[in-house]
Amino acid sequence: MQTLQTTSLWVRDNQLFILDQQALPQASRWLDANSVEALVGHIHALRVRGAPLIGLSASLLLALLAERGLNRDALLNALETLRASRPTAVNLMNNLDRMKLALAQEDFVPALVAEALRLIEEDKQLCERIAIAGSQLVKPGSRLLTHCNTGGLATAGVGTALGVINFAHQQGNVANVWVDETRPLLQGGRLTAWELGELGVPYQLITDSMAASLMAKGQVDAVWVGADRIATNGDVANKIGTYSLAVLAKFHGIPFYVAAPQTTLDPNCPNGEAIPIEQRAAAEVTGVAGSFGEVQWAPENARVYNPAFDVTPAALISGWVLDIGVVTPEEVAAGKFA
Ligand code: MRU
């Protein structure tokens, strides 16, 4: 396969490398992701993360494995193992469905390579279109609040919600971005803060529990988040903590926007209750770990509840900003996603 590089994926000498998103921002290191076991391990550990990026990394690996001579049955096994690596993000399933069609072709090796490269290029274009559509909703002087990380690290392009914020910043319309640190894994505190700093977008880091008082003080003009899956009724699964922000935004009369590519829509999922939510290890809540070190603060045997995502009901969402444009609550209620 040709050499290619995005913010967090790198193919060179027919090998796949991923930028370790657990190590950022203290260390920038590329890790080998050349077997299904290695990539699934990286996905579980969130070294590769962000719904679009997970799907793209799995597709690239399949294409590379095909070039290395794996037969159709072995590739199908690899595809199904990768598909099961993250249950909530539907981009992975959507991307792998496309790869499965390529695998069914007689000349499947070039078909898989072409499809993986096409998915990368498409993702860049989807992000660009989301950013163009979404930035039109950002008024001059806006103080925006975002959760988790939805930037170039999480996609092949400029990102989703963070792409919108970046475009709006380039248009001179962003006064400040409130960055939720995003417990328990700190994607906001580590990754969004780092990306906004690199882009020169003004931001202030807050803990997740500070959003309410900021809104009460009139310091937030809009909330922008990404999505792992959008059901046909408009309910959205995203990083844990998103739902609380949506409730807070509704109470304070602040617009709450979800930015995502079409690959995040699940036409087979009628509502948020049908979205599988990944449960994660207790250690993520009893302490914290990263390139900065590892610490546990909770008692050794503390019982923990650790869902990675929550569901925001459509009724709390002001607009779904997709690559096809801004979809309104009225359009969703009329069956736009069905
Ligand atoms: O567990 P993560 O860090 O992968 O969660 C990421 C999110 O929740 C993002 O908002 C979503 O995947 C969209 S990324 C463009």
UniProtKB/TrEMBL annotation:
Protein's pathway: Amino-acid biosynthesis; L-methionine biosynthesis via salvage pathway; L-methionine from S-methyl-5-thio-alpha-D-ribose 1-phosphate: step 1/6
Q: Which SUPFAM superfamilies does the UniProt entry name for this protein?
A: NagB/RpiA/CoA transferase-like (SSF100950)
* Residues holding substrate: R49, G50, A51, R86, Q187, N238, K239
**Is Metal-binding there in the keyword field?**
no
Q: Which family does it belong to?
A: Belongs to the EIF-2B alpha/beta/delta subunits family. MtnA subfamily.
Q: Which GO MF term does the entry hold, naming one?
A: S-methyl-5-thioribose-1-phosphate isomerase activity
Give site residues, Transition state stabilizer.
Answer: C148
Q: Which Pfam families match?
A: IF-2B
Q: What is its EC number?
A: 5.3.1.23
Q: In the UniProt record, does the keyword Amino-acid biosynthesis occur? A: yes
Q: What is this protein called?
A: Methylthioribose-1-phosphate isomerase
Keyword annotations: Amino-acid biosynthesis, Isomerase, Methionine biosynthesis
- Reactions listed under catalytic activity: 5-(methylsulfanyl)-alpha-D-ribose 1-phosphate = 5-(methylsulfanyl)-D-ribulose 1-phosphate; 5-deoxy-alpha-D-ribose 1-phosphate = 5-deoxy-D-ribulose 1-phosphate
Describe its function.
Answer: Catalyzes the interconversion of methylthioribose-1-phosphate (MTR-1-P) into methylthioribulose-1-phosphate (MTRu-1-P). Also catalyzes the interconversion of 5-deoxyribose 1-phosphate and 5-deoxyribulose 1-phosphate. Part of a bifunctional DHAP-shunt salvage pathway for SAM by-products.
